């Protein structure tokens, strides 16, 4: 018809789908204002196709915190093997005449972080079974398998009293089955109201001097115990209060000389078994000394569980030094890091674009990239030890402490629960989460999230939101959604504790 107008349909824009939809949602998560001015590195890979589904600041180096343990664990499995064990021996070069040993007794360690007081007691029983009742010489502590540098480069001086920064030694004691080696438990038992609490060490040792400034508060009041070892010394100030009629309250103190600690605990065990020694002092085991007793630790495949699930810093560092010792004969951080870099290169990780100075990530000098972490996660799937490594990672939302580990209170009630297997990391202004997740379409994905330099509240919930969104990902059929994360309250988020759990590794707050 002449003069009639023709309607033209407006162009339509198709909604993003597949990886494009995923990118839209992850961009929204990273637009959170808490990340303004901060570093937010994220990489997501499909390991079966090597496709990078998402990348943001992938090659920008950042402090990894405990995500560094992924690098250390993988390198240790490569260098030492899943069946590696630490050895502790009791030896002598003296002559035994009846019940008398003419000479010294040597306690020699190789870094075993799982040695409990009960293990030293069993060693003492073996010595007693050999017929020795008196050692004319001394008990010599031999920690020469490692160097004498107890703390890592870049560790904060004010972390020194706290169990997560315990000194590293080839000879040490753990007070618990989390194997927090180089620490002692400080136990405060309430007395009568208004009176001091009774303070004791577990295991009993004279290498720490307790300055008891505690009081017993009213029944039903909240405990408020403070335990702090003075910088550079062995004096431990215990202050605060514990409620009358309440349970024993425990905290940790690091021990400045772990080898002396081991010697003291072993000497007490020997005495309990009727073996007297003429004092404890350091010393090196002479060539040709014969063994009177010995113990092998659990294999590395088993040690990985408390190491990775609970993010145990000390375990990482003894593994670094053990790698150095295997390569050079002496356990040093420098030698161990050289081996670590070599093994990572063999796993497809470019060590030249990273810097590692310790094994735990406690040092702020460590610098890695999300791309390299994701490559490690991807390439590790081809290694014969992969299942051991994978099983050692914390599992989101699993309440079992030795399964869920530092993720046990996160992503509860979401598609990430019992799905996300990942390593956490936390320092002041740093949080990281890297691991594995199975997407809704059944595809395995690897991811790395490293946030640095935030100054407001911790963005751990954004890590969770990313991991949950990956669990919801449906491949080519995927469509944008409203990412959500439901985070169960963490047990240490309790005003009575005075602890901000969001700022710490969960394992660093033993109440959790």
TrEMBL record:
Gene3D superfamilies assigned: D-Ala-D-Ala carboxypeptidase C, peptidase S13, DD-peptidase/beta-lactamase superfamily
One MF term in the entry's GO annotations: serine-type D-Ala-D-Ala carboxypeptidase activity
EC number, UniProt record: 3.4.-.-, 3.4.16.4
SUPFAM superfamilies in the cross-refs: beta-lactamase/transpeptidase-like (SSF56601)
Keywords: Carboxypeptidase, Hydrolase, Protease
Region (Disordered): 478-497
Enzyme class, first EC level, given as a word: hydrolase
GO biological process, any: peptidoglycan metabolic process
Keyword S-adenosyl-L-methionine included in the entry's annotation: no
Protein name in the entry: Penicillin binding protein
Organism in which the protein naturally occurs: Saccharopolyspora erythraea (strain ATCC 11635 / DSM 40517 / JCM 4748 / NBRC 13426 / NCIMB 8594 / NRRL 2338)
């Amino acid at each position: 018809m002449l003069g009639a107008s023709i309607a033209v349909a407006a162009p339509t824009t198709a909604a993003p789908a597949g990886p494009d939809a995923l990118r839209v949602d992850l961009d929204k998560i990273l637009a959170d204002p808490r990340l303004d001015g901060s570093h937010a590195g994220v990489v997501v890979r499909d390991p079966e196709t090597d496709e990078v589904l998402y990348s943001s600041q992938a090659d920008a180096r950042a402090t990894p915190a405990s995500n560094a343990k992924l690098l250390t664990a993988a390198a240790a499995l490569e260098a030492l093997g899943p069946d590696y064990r630490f050895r502790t021996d009791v030896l002598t070069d003296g002559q035994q005449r009846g019940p008398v040993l003419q000479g010294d007794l040597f306690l020699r360690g190789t870094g075993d972080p799982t040695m409990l007081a009960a293990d030293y007691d069993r060693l003492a029983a073996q010595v007693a079974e050999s017929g020795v009742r008196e050692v004319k010489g001394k008990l010599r502590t031999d920690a020469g398998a490692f160097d004498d540098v107890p703390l890592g480069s870049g560790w904060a001086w004010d972390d020194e009293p706290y169990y997560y920064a315990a000194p590293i030694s080839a000879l040490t004691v753990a007070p618990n089955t989390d194997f927090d080696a180089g620490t002692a438990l400080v136990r405060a038992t309430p007395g009568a109201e208004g009176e001091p609490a009774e303070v004791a060490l577990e295991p009993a040792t004279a290498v720490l001097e307790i300055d008891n400034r505690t009081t017993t508060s009213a029944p039903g009041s909240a405990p408020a115990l403070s335990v702090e070892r003075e910088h550079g010394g062995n004096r431990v100030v215990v202050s605060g209060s514990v409620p009358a009629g309440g349970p024993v309250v425990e905290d940790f103190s690091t021990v400045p000389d772990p080898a002396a600690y081991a010697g003291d605990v072993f000497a007490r065990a020997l005495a309990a078994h009727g073996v007297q020694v003429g004092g404890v002092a350091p010393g090196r085991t002479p060539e040709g000394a014969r063994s009177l007793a010995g113990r092998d630790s659990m294999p590395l495949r088993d040690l990985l569980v408390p190491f990775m699930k609970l993010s145990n810093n000390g375990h990482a560092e003894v593994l670094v030094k053990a790698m150095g010792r295997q390569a050079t004969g002496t356990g040093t951080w420098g030698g161990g890091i050289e081996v670590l870099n070599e093994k990572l290169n063999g796993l497809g990780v470019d060590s030249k674009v990273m810097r590692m100075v310790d094994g735990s990530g406690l040092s702020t000098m460590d610098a890695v990239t999300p791309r390299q972490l994701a490559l490690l996660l991807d390439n590790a799937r081809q290694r014969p030890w992969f299942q051991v490594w994978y099983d050692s990672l914390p599992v989101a939302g699993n309440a079992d402490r030795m399964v869920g580990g530092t993720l046990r209170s996160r992503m509860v009630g979401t598609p990430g629960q019992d799905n996300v297997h990942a390593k956490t990391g936390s320092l002041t202004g740093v949080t990281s989460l890297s691991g594995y997740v199975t997407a809704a379409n059944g595809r395995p994905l690897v991811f790395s999230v490293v946030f640095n330099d935030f100054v407001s509240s911790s963005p751990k919930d954004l890590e969770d939101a990313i991991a949950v969104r990956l669990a919801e990902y449906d491949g080519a059929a995927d469509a944008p959604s409203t990412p959500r994360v439901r985070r169960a309250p963490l047990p240490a988020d309790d005003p009575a504790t005075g602890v901000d759990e969001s700022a710490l590794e969960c394992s660093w707050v033993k109440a959790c």
